[in-house]
Design a protein that fits this description.
Layout lengths: L1 E4 L2 E4 L3 H12 L5 E5 L10 E3 L8 E3 L11 H9 L4 E3 L5 E5 L7 E3 L9 E3 L4 H9 L6 E3 L1 E8 L4 E7 L4 E6 L1 E4 L3 H7 L1 E3 L4 H8 L9 E7 L3 H4 L2 E7 L4 E6 L7 E7 L3 H4 L4 H16 L8 E6 L9 H5 L20 E3 L12 H22 L9
Parallel strand pairs: 1-13, 2-3, 2-14, 3-10, 7-17, 11-15, 14-21
Antiparallel strand pairs: 4-5, 6-9, 7-8, 11-12, 12-13, 16-19, 16-20, 17-18, 18-19
C-alpha cells in the first residue's frame, strides 16, 4: 500500500469535480487530487465522435443543452473559456404519435423560450477544456475511492486503481463531486454518516440515472427539407421525446429519450432497441430515417458509476436539491459539490457549476481563517 498527503481530495471528475479543481488552481491551491473511478473524465457528460473519419463533430449521450439567459454563471464560463455555442434547431413542424395503430400527426412547431443552446463539438468540449487547464498529475482516472475515515484533524482517503493497487491519501478536506445517492451506496465512512443524513442522500434522485438516449446520424437533415423541425412526442415509443441533433460542423442527427423504464430496457438487447428506434423514426420522419449512418445508445441506468438499484427501480424524476443535514463528526471535512447539491439548478450542468463554485468558496474562506495548522490559504 502506498501513501500520499494532499490538502484537498475531489471525488469525481465530472463537471463539478473538474470545475472545482479549476477554481482551486485559480486560487493558487495546487496540492489537490481528483479521483475518478472511470477510465475517462466527464462523468455524466458524454460526447462521442459522430464518425470514424476524424470529423470534429460529436454526438451528446448525456446533457445536451444549456440556457445562458437563465444560467448566466455557466454562460459566462463557456464564454470565458472561448467555447463556441449555437442555438438548438427549432424551425418547422413537429410530429405527434398518440397511440398504436393511429398514424402520426403533423402539427405546427413552436420555439421554446429562452432559447436552448448547445456547444460546438458536444457538451464534453466544456469538460475537455477544463481538464486541459489542470495539472494532469493531479487527475487520477481509473482510481475509485472506497472509503473515508475521519481522524479529527485529517481525512484518510482509501482508493483502488484498475490494477488493484490500494493507496491511502491524507487530506484536510474532501469535495464530494458525485451524486449523494451514489456516495451513500458505494463509499464507506468511519465514523458512519449520521442516520438522517444518509437517509436524505439515499432519497435524493440522481439526474440522468434512470434515463437512456438514442442518437442516429444521417448523410443530411432530410426532415428539415420536408419542413420538419426534427422534434416529436410519442406515446407509442420506444422513444418518448425526439429532437434535432444536427451538429455545428454540419453533421446531421436525431436523438431521443427512451420512454421505456429501465426495468423494461434491461430485458431487451441493444440490437432490438435499435431496430425499434429506427422503425419509430421512419414512422415519424419517413423512410430515410430507417437507414442511419451510425447509431448510439447510452443507458445510464446500466452504468454502475451513475446509477444504483434505487435509480433503476425509481421514477425518472428531476432531482431536488440534496438536503444540508448535520454532518456530525464530518462537519468541516466534507462538502457536497455535485449538481444535486445546487439549490438553483439541481441536476443541470449549471447546477454542477453553481455547487462547485459555492463549495470551493466556502472551503477557502473557512480554511483561510480557521486552519488548524495556522496556515493561510491563498486568495
Amino acid at each position: 500500500m502506498t501513501m500520499r498527503t494532499e490538502r484537498v481530495a475531489v471525488i469525481g471528475a465530472g463537471l463539478s469535480g473538474l470545475y472545482a479543481a479549476f477554481l482551486l488552481q485559480r486560487r493558487g491551491i495546487h496540492d489537490y487530487l481528483v479521483f475518478e473511478a472511470r477510465k475517462t473524465l466527464g462523468g455524466r457528460i458524454l460526447s462521442l465522435p459522430a464518425t470514424a473519419h476524424g470529423n470534429a463533430d460529436r454526438v451528446d449521450l448525456g446533457p445536451t443543452w444549456f440556457w445562458p439567459d437563465m444560467q448566466p454563471q455557466l454562460g459566462n464560463l463557456i464564454h470565458d473559456l472561448g467555447i463556441t455555442s449555437f442555438e438548438q434547431h427549432q424551425a418547422g413542424d413537429m410530429m405527434i404519435e398518440r397511440s398504436h395503430g393511429e398514424p402520426p400527426v403533423r402539427l405546427r412547431g413552436y420555439a421554446t423560450a429562452p432559447v436552448s443552446m448547445r456547444l460546438a463539438g458536444g457538451m464534453a468540449t466544456l469538460t475537455d477544456t477544463l481538464a486541459a487547464a489542470l495539472n494532469a498529475k493531479s487527475i487520477l482516472a481509473g482510481e475509485a475511492v472506497r472509503s473515508l475515515r475521519c481522524t479529527g484533524s485529517k481525512v484518510e482517503v482509501r482508493s483502488e486503481n484498475l490494477a488493484g493497487t490500494v493507496t491511502t491519501t491524507w487530506v484536510d478536506h474532501v469535495l464530494l463531486a458525485l451524486p449523494p445517492r451514489l456516495i451513500e451506496a458505494n463509499l464507506s465512512f468511519e465514523p458512519a454518516l449520521p442516520r438522517a443524513l444518509a437517509q436524505q442522500w439515499r432519497s435524493t434522485n440522481t439526474w440522468m440515472a434512470p434515463h437512456a438516449k438514442y442518437v442516429a446520424t444521417y448523410p443530411f437533415a432530410f426532415w428539415r427539407q420536408s419542413g420538419l423541425s426534427g422534434e416529436a412526442r410519442s406515446a407509442c415509443g420506444p422513444l418518448g421525446e425526439i429532437h434535432d441533433a444536427c451538429m455545428e460542423r454540419g453533421g446531421a442527427a436525431l436523438f431521443g429519450f427512451f420512454g421505456l423504464p429501465a426495468s423494461v430496457r434491461r430485458n431487451a438487447t441493444e440490437d432490438v432497441l435499435r431496430r425499434h428506434c429506427r422503425a419509430q423514426l421512419a414512422r415519424l420522419f419517413g423512410p430515410d430515417a430507417a437507414t442511419p449512418k451510425a447509431e448510439f445508445i447510452k443507458d445510464w441506468a446500466s452504468d454502475p458509476h451513475t446509477a444504483t438499484t434505487l435509480d433503476i427501480e425509481g421514477a425518472a424524476q428531476h432531482a431536488l436539491p440534496a438536503a444540508n443535514a448535520p454532518l456530525g463528526s464530518w462537519n468541516g471535512r466534507l462538502t457536497g459539490i455535485a449538481s444535486e447539491w445546487s439549490q438553483q439548478f439541481p441536476g443541470y450542468i449549471a447546477g454542477a457549476i453553481d455547487a462547485a463554485y459555492r463549495g470551493v468558496e466556502a472551503l477557502t474562506l473557512h480554511d483561510r481563517s480557521t486552519s488548524s495548522h495556522g496556515r493561510k490559504w491563498p486568495i
